[in-house]
Write a structure and sequence with these properties.
single chain; alpha/beta; 6-stranded mixed β-sheet; 22 helices; 20 strands; globular
Amino acid sequence: MNELWINFDEYIKKVLDKHPEFTEQDISEICENYIASFPKKTKIESIKRSLDKYLIKEFELETETTWQKTDNYKEYSLNNLPKYMLKSSKAWNNICILNIIWLYKSLGKSVLFENANLKINSNDKISLIWRNGSGKSTLLKMIIWMETIDEWKIEFAKWIKIWYLSQDLFWENRENTLKKEILSVFSEITEKFEILQKINKDIQNNVWDVEKLFEKKLFLEKFLKENDGFAKYSFQTEILKYFWFDENQLDLKISQLSGGEQTKVQIAKFFLQDVDLLIMDEPTNHLDIEGIMFLEKFCKLWQKWLICISHDKRFIDNVFDKIVEISGKKLNTYNWNYEYFLEQKQKNYDLQFKNYNDQQKYLEKQQEFINKFRAQSSKATQVQSRIKMLDKIEKIEIPEDELTLKKIKLNIDIRLPNMIFTLSDLNVWYRESLVKLPKIIEITKDKKIGVIWKNWVWKTTLLKTILGEIDSLWWEVKINEKIIIGSYSQVFETLNMDNSIIEELVCGWRSQTEVRNILGWLLIIWDKVNQKISTLSGGEKAKVALTKMLLQKPHLLIMDEPTNHLDLFSKETIKNMLIDFKGVTLIVSHDRDLLSAISNELWVIKDNRLKVYDNMNKWFDEIFE
């Protein structure tokens, strides 16, 4: 029996796809040796079936049914991720993986942490929250040793492996292709695997000294087998299919990927490396709603440890089981979700305020006794005793009322006409693509419109087209001449970075009192107003841009991601302002909590068309399913 009457090509291809360390000649010889053992009268079909079963078992190949299944792109989803990679391989019951002990940290003259403590135990998913500038990012950087610790220590479980996903999605080289980037996860395995592939080709072509090539081939195969290299190499690119990438995207540069796609690549990279603790710093900032929902689903499936800074209320409630709040230079832990945290924080505030008042009354009573009898010798012992007692007593500090939201009032100075503006035959053009809108869209005085889109640039382009800042192909926008438009851009285009905050906002004719009032609502107070805009954080710049818009006293608000960069406190302030606003709003946002609270109409752009949803019961999950 020989290859002349049984074609081995099909078998060779299957084996080489799974085990590229072999050559065609290797597989052909294995097949020939196997069929040589059959009697001459054996039917060819029986030999083929037997050979097929033998190769499947010997080389751990999938059956034809399984091959068809795995080639189906729809089968690759988060739900089908290998379950063992989502769980810790360590014996983690009742174990503390991270212990922060009496932490002290200052930046310049500001003390961020003083005697702060935190324990992370089995299965904890922790959301780190509170205001901008409270030290959240600094804490994460101390955990991964990117920031020094002034006093005391952070203890880790010895075996722990940590991955840090930063806000700015750091890449060593943004010009790398997606394939090159993902193959860098197991760089040594990738290098040796690619050398082995070249050697196999050289052997087939009788290039160079074949004997020496075989020596190198054996060495490389031994290394890859001992380090599970063949499986790891192929899984590097296969993992991308679970994150909705296809083969056509492998040659794209990282710089060509959207923020959401780049986040998915980062997650795929750490997922390959059996990480125990995932640390994320505001991961939803650069994601659209689809991207946030994807990340949310992944975090729910993730059964290891997770610490995340987030200002996305819905994301926090859906994923995390513990809230760690930075307040009073301490790390305060609350079980359950954000709403429960607010309830417990209010109870703690009420209790501390009561204890503070009770202690003040007690101290005043003791001081009255001391003042009254200080001069009487018969009471001298009692007076001295009480003075010493007051010196030793631990004073309760008056709690800061951190939960009372400031109220921003936007008064409308005219009675709005029913029709605010209309869009007729509007088409948005961007980078050789056309987005078609309904033939006529009428925006009346009762409209609160939320805009969501998979690609952020498109949403921004739509707003600029409506405002007349970008030309469309053909269109007509009619805006009532009585209407004052207030616009807000998340890239702060309207701000002069060389000005101080107060210089930018007063502009020679507005009163400082009015400006300081609005800034105070957004927690920019005191000498902060004299700081240069260029030195502010992203969140602080956002507050200045918002204030500049509000000072115009607009009737129509057109806003691009108004809550991006803002902490939860400021987000709630802006949300309440927009709920109470009596004018019209057109707001691009990926903040589900904001959109569900303020919108009565949703514009969704998919497949280059804008669709209007006025039934708000049909919400994000249904729209994006």
